[in-house]
Amino acid sequence: MFRTPLGTRTAVAFTSEMALSRVLGPAQPWIRLGEAALRAMALPLGADRITVDPLLTARRPRPVSPAAPPESAKRPVVAC
């Protein structure tokens, strides 16, 4: 199960093993299901939608060096 950008639960389906691997990694376990079987499994879990071949858009956070202060800390602060 995934959540849509609005927070709604959705079942997820992929059209190929390669599409699944691109999103979830090559070690992701999977089984082949028909649409009716996927809907029957997902509905009791609160997912009444199916998203086919989703793309994850979030990027990994960049590591921050503990010695480098953030850009905002480099600016002078003026208090009135």
Note down, in words, how this protein is organized:
It comes from Streptomyces coryli. 25% of the residues lie in helices and 12% in strands. The protein has 80 residues and is an alpha+beta fold. Strand 1 (2-3) and strand 2 form a beta hairpin. It has a three-stranded mixed β-sheet, with helices on one face.
Offer a concise description of the structure.
The chain is an alpha+beta fold. 25% of the residues lie in helices and 12% in strands.
SSE layout:
Elements: E1 2-3, E2 9-13, H1 17-24, H2 35-42, E3 50-52, H3 71-74
Region (Disordered): 58-80
Organism: Streptomyces coryli
Protein name: SseB protein N-terminal domain-containing protein
How many helical stretches?
3
Strand content: 5-15%
Number of strands: 3
* Average of per-residue pLDDT values: 82
Broad structural category: alpha+beta
What is the strand arrangement across the widest sheet?
A: 1-2-3
Uncertain segments are: none
Rg on CA atoms, Å: 20 Å
What is the H-and-E element order? Answer: EEHHEH
- CA-to-CA gap between the ends? 51 Å
- The global form is elongated
Largest sheet: 3 strands, mixed
Give the helix proportion (percent range): 25-40%
List its traits.
alpha+beta, 3 strands, 80 residues, SseB protein N-terminal domain-containing protein, SAV_915-like_dom
